[in-house]
Specification:
- By secondary structure, this protein is of the alpha/beta class.
- It has one domain: Purple Acid Phosphatase, chain A, domain 2 (4-Layer Sandwich), CATH 3.60.21.10.
- It is built from nine helices and 13 strands.
- α3 packs across α5 and α6 crosses α8.
């Protein structure tokens, strides 16, 4: 039995199947961890969702920003962007079943000595605190007030965590940190404009994982989201978004021994335009 964590698929279904063939994935004994953003920009979001949903307990997926975008669109909130490739999902006969399943997915997964999140954790958050905060958002998504939450989810303010935050501001900071963050200050103020390499931070900002005295430093965090960062392995970090949708590579890592397996990608975003 092996557990493989896989980087952002973003609708690159053909590449996902090629990767699973290369690692000789056997769903009877192996497990897959997906770091979020199963959908969007690539041409096969619908096929990807159907496949991962069918895997049931053999796959664990955390929500990414593109996944939340799709859920919001399905309920009539937000707007389709020019480079979105979500029409096939939104028009599918099993759309409601897929969206209902996506609403049950976690923001954070902790197991087997690893912590999986799409983007990152703010420096003030221990893993235990992050688990509690993730559950607050998960309860909203799964509960009777999910429409109200999705309607107000978008926005970049507040951009810093405070324990006294309440309501949608509190939920928005949690969502933005776990699904959108790349850079933040030592005090945990997030910047959402810089999306380039880790050396391109604004003055006073750092890659979230480089912040000194980060309270989750002792945890092994598995994440994606940051294609310009690429595959990055540190003693306490496994970052797996190698830019498949932009013509990079789709990456899997066997968590038991950190064996890396990659397949080249044709660039789903370019094909879909």
């Amino acid at each position: 039995m092996a557990t493989y964590a896989i980087g952002d698929v973003q609708g690159c279904y053909s590449e996902l199947r090629a990767l699973l063939e290369k690692i000789r994935f056997d769903e009877r004994r192996d497990r897959l961890w997906f770091v979020g953003d199963l959908v969007n920009r690539g041409p096969g979001s619908l096929e990807t969702l159907r496949f991962v949903k069918r895997l049931g307990g053999h796959a664990v997926t955390v929500l990414g920003n593109h996944d939340l975008h799709l859920i919001a669109l399905a309920y009539g909130y937000g707007r389709l962007r020019g480079d979105d490739t979500l029409d096939a999902v939104l028009q599918a006969p099993d759309r409601d079943d897929l969206i209902d399943w996506m609403r049950t997915l976690p923001l954070l997964h902790v197991a087997e000595g690893h912590v999986m999140v799409h983007a990152g954790l703010l420096p003030q958050w221990s893993v235990e605190k992050a688990q509690r905060l993730a559950r607050e958002v998960e309860d909203e998504l799964r509960g009777p007030r999910h429409r109200e939450f999705l309607e107000r989810m978008y926005g970049s303010k507040p951009d810093q965590w405070r324990d006294d935050l309440r309501g949608i501001g509190r939920l928005r900071v949690i969502v933005n940190a776990m699904t959108r963050m790349r850079f933040c200050t030592q005090e945990g103020r997030m910047d959402f404009k810089a999306k380039g390499e880790s050396t391109q931070a604004l003055p006073g900002y750092l890659p979230w994982f480089d912040v000194p005295a980060r309270r989750s430093t002792d945890a092994m965090i598995v994440c994606g989201h940051w294609s310009a960062l690429g595959l990055k392995l540190l003693s306490n970090l496994i970052a797996l978004d190698a830019g498949c949708v932009w013509g990079g590579q789709l990456t899997a890592i066997r968590l038991e021994d950190r064996t890396i397996v990659q397949v080249p990608c044709a660039g789903g975003a370019s094909r879909a335009r």
